[in-house]
Specification:
The protein is built from ten helices and 13 strands. It is an alpha+beta fold. It folds into two domains: 138 residues, 60s Ribosomal Protein L30, Chain: A (2-Layer Sandwich); 180 residues, PurM-like C-terminal domain (Phosphoribosyl-aminoimidazole Synthetase, Chain A, domain 2, Alpha-Beta Complex), CATH 3.90.650.10. The structure holds adenosine-5'-diphosphate (ADP), thiamine diphosphate and magnesium ion (3 copies).
């Protein structure tokens, strides 16, 4: 596996001849390649289908997340891909694999967290599967959401003349993870230990991310939104996905990307650039997207009325040329398509 990165592997597995005839028929309007698939439900409704997995030691450790956080975040990350399509989450299926020795209290706590998130976003858990395994706990959450015909917000819809927006702070989750790993204390103590308590916002961003369902629905209803993606692997990687899928170029303006006070403080104390966490960290679950520049301010007003932030952080230009970062001095530097990748880093 060492020679194949995560995205090449997905293409390799799903691009073969045998997939073409049957797999691409049957009412599938958007197949593999976006945050979720879109399939025809009825003449006035579309289902949105997605799943996300959380695996012990890859997505969480005992020192980074409490059991309830693991369940909460497994649901939240899958719900986030429904937000990334502008959809409304409806149902979920949960697959759980765990070693035979797992204490029942641990699973109970995970499910408390999982249902807390499901209730918050009005998702009904309708089933799943449970197995034993060798190694750590794995939770896979499949979410089924809904939207109207032709309303799903795709990565491929960015157009020349669009502004690029983001719904909130990024980088906090990656910094929170680094902080928790560095302290190496039981995660149960993250809101009582005086030292851990120093960065509650960073820890919360990592352990209790908020999928942007309300923002996604507002973007869909506004009729202004073109492309949309959720930030699971870092802004750079997600902006690249929009640029490639839409065959356009994106310039992100460094000074416009919002940064939290806690991240600024944390990064400066570590002697690191906050921008590195924001661009390459991941697990933020904010929405990054594009809308025609002439409607961007109106969109911002709609967000303000709904009590939600929306930051304009860049623009779409010309032909496909990847993603660049415009620095304070006006220089534009190419951004690497770097971010979290399961098989390369
Ligand atoms: N093992 C797989 N088999 C089929 N499709 C997959 C597999 N893994 C990922 N995909 C699809 O590839 C696309 C990209 O996946 P991923 O990068 O995990 O999405 P996201 O980051 O939005 O959660 C999605 O459309 C997803 O459904
Ligand atoms: C212990 C630990 N190490 C590293 C990470 C960082 N990490 C793991 S997966 C991931 C990216 C998001 O997960 P992925 O499975 O790629 O979600 P998707 O893009 O499919 O939604 C990140 C940043 C973590 N959360 N926990
Ligand atoms: Mg996604
Ligand atoms: Mg994935
Ligand atoms: Mg995802």
């Amino acid at each position: 596996m060492s020679s194949v990165d995560e995205f090449t592997l997905i293409d390799l597995l799903n691009g073969g001849k045998q997939t073409i005839a049957f797999q691409r028929a049957g009412g599938v309007e958007t197949g593999i390649g976006d945050d979720a698939a879109v399939v025809r439900a009825s003449s006035d409704s579309r289902w949105i289908l997605t799943c996300d997995t959380m695996t012990e030691d890859i997505h969480f450790k005992r020192v980074t997340m409490r059991d309830a956080d693991v369940g909460y975040k497994a649901m939240a990350s899958a719900v986030s891909d429904i937000a990334a399509m502008g959809g409304t989450p409806r149902y979920a299926l949960v697959a759980l694999s765990m070693p035979k020795s797992t204490p029942v209290e641990r699973v109970r706590a995970m499910y408390d967290g999982l249902y807390e998130c499901a209730n918050r976003y009005r998702v009904v858990v309708t089933g799943g599967d449970t197995t034993s395994c060798i190694g750590g706990v794995t939770l896979t959450v499949t979410v089924i959401g809904e939207t109207e015909p032709d309303k799903a917000l795709l990565r491929s819809a960015a157009r020349l003349g669009d502004a690029v927006f983001i719904t909130g702070f990024t980088g906090d989750s990656a910094a929170g993870l680094e902080w928790l790993l560095g302290k190496n204390k039981p995660s149960e103590e993250w809101d009582t230990d005086p030292e851990l308590k120093r960065y509650p916002g960073l820890i919360r961003a990592h352990c209790r991310p908020e999928p942007q369902i309300e923002a996604g629905e507002l973007l869909r209803r506004s009729g202004f939104c073109h492309a949309l993606n959720d930030v699971s692997d870092g802004i750079a990687s997600e902006a690249w996905e929009i640029a490639v899928a839409s065959n356009i170029g994106i310039d992100l303006i460094e000074d416009r990307i919002p940064v939290s006070g806690e991240l600024l403080d944390y990064a400066s104390r570590q002697g690191k650039a906050s921008l590195d966490y924001m661009l390459y960290g991941g697990e933020d679950y904010q929405l990054i997207g594009t809308a025609p520049a002439e409607h961007a301010v109106e969109l911002q007003m709609q967000f303000k009325e709904a009590g939600l932030p929306l930051y304009l952080i860049g623009y779409v230009h010309g032909k496909h040329s990847g993603v660049r970062l415009v620095r304070s001095d006006g220089s534009a530097v190419p951004l690497a398509k770097r971010g979290y990748n399961h098989f390369t880093g």
